[in-house]
């Protein structure tokens, strides 16, 4: 079932999660152990992130150093199939530009369609560690809108091989990312909204936001989107703070502001457990306000902290 259909058919706020594929070397059961307790609350869908390859330097037996390309978290397509089979819930794979040719992207979309997956979240993808800027594959898509257009073309039966006539039309519901405090590379939020509007006009049916910790940022973002003619559902993405190190790391990495009350509450703690509890309580308060405001979905980035998410969601749903 499509994300947009879940939203349109719901009489209230629905629930979704986002998970990481296990590190290479781990099996699917590590992910199931992560998700098992959270399934009690009956999420409508589960997002699975996609990760581009990275380059690492490894010393060879002869003493030389070789730069090797590795993918630390493979398996997004297979994991989506496993989640759907194991839990009977819809999975939403992320699809990214970096590290993939257009033909590899087309083949991934075909695989997803064969598996009965109805939704794809379209992203440019993060900059690899140790690199400045995101360099696309020479034969790949540079920006998220390019990837979105490729997926939308496949929805209309147009394949890269022009000899394919009357090709099967896929029917993916396509989502994109939004940034309430603007993308880190954008010159302004207004400029960011122009690009977001282009994605919606190109076929995006819903938006999932980057994490934020001040609900006023989300409400202002939605208002500005509506004023710009962006009328699709805007799903708030939520993540708990769980330690003091995140007070400096998260704002730097994700280009966002933390409320002073949250900073002060975290700094007043003396143990990791107490700091995690502060983050959990903040997440609960955020969630309650957003649900009361009638947001379409509460989307939780679980990212290794399922117990915190469980504790919070148990007070909301």
In words, what does this structure look like?
It is built from 11 helices and 11 strands. With 317 residues, the protein is α/β, with parallel strands linked by helices. The protein has a single domain, classed as TIM Barrel, CATH 3.20.20. The chain has a 9-stranded parallel β-sheet, sandwiched between helices. A two-stranded antiparallel ribbon has the order 3-4. It starts with a helix and ends with a helix. The model has no long low-confidence stretch (mean pLDDT 92).
Topology at a glance:
Blueprint: H1 3-9, E1 14-19, H2 28-35, E2 45-48, E3 54-59, E4 65-70, H3 76-87, E5 90-96, H4 102-114, E6 119-123, H5 144-155, E7 173-178, H6 189-201, E8 206-209, H7 215-227, E9 234-235, E10 237-238, H8 246-254, H9 260-267, H10 272-292, E11 297-301, H11 306-313
Parallel strand pairs: 1-2, 1-11, 2-5, 5-6, 6-7, 7-8, 8-9, 10-11
Antiparallel strand pairs: 3-4
Helix pairs in contact: 4-5, 9-10, 10-11
Task: List the defining traits of the structure above.
TIM Barrel, alpha/beta, nine-stranded parallel beta sheet, 11 helices, 11 strands, 317 residues
Largest sheet: 9 strands, parallel
How many domains comprise the coordinates? 1
Q: Report the principal-axis shape.
A: globular
Helix content: 25-40%
Task: Look at the structure and give the mean pLDDT.
Answer: 92
Order of helices and strands: HEHEEEHEHEHEHEHEEHHHEH
- Strands in their spatial order, largest beta sheet: 9-8-7-6-5-2-1-11-10
Stretches with pLDDT under 50, minimum 5 residues: none
């Amino acid at each position: 079932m499509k994300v947009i259909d879940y939203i349109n058919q719901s009489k209230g706020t629905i629930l979704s999660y986002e998970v990481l594929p296990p590190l290479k070397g781990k099996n699917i059961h590590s992910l199931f152990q992560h998700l098992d307790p959270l399934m009690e609350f009956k999420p409508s869908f589960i997002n699975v992130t996609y990760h581009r390859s990275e380059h690492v330097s490894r010393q060879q037996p002869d003493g030389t150093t070789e730069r090797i390309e590795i993918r630390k978290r493979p398996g997004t397509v297979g994991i989506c199939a496993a989640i759907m089979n194991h839990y009977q819930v819809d999975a939403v794979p992320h699809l990214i530009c970096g590290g993939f040719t257009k033909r590899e992207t087309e083949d991934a979309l075909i695989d997803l369609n064969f598996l009965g997956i109805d939704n794809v979240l379209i992203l440019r993808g993060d900059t690899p560690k140790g690199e400045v800027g995101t360099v696309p594959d020479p034969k790949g898509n540079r920006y998220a809108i390019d990837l979105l257009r490729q997926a939308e073309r496949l929805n209309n039966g147009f394949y890269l091989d022009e000899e394919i006539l009357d090709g099967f039309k896929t029917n993916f519901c396509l989502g994109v990312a939004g940034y309430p405090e603007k993308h880190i590379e954008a010159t302004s939020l207004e400029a960011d909204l122009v690009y977001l509007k282009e994605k919606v006009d190109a076929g995006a049916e819903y938006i999932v936001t980057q994490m934020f910790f001040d609900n006023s940022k989300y409400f202002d973002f939605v208002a500005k989107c509506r004023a710009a003619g962006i009328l699709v559902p805007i799903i708030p993405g939520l993540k708990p703070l769980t330690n003091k190190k995140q007070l400096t790391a998260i704002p730097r990495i994700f280009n966002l502001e933390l409320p002073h009350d949250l900073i002060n509450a975290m700094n007043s703690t003396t143990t990791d457990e107490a700091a995690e509890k502060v983050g959990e309580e903040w997440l609960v308060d955020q969630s309650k306000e957003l649900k009361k405001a009638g947001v379409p979905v509460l989307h939780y980035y679980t990212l290794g902290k399922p117990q915190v998410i469980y504790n919070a969601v148990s007070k909301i749903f």
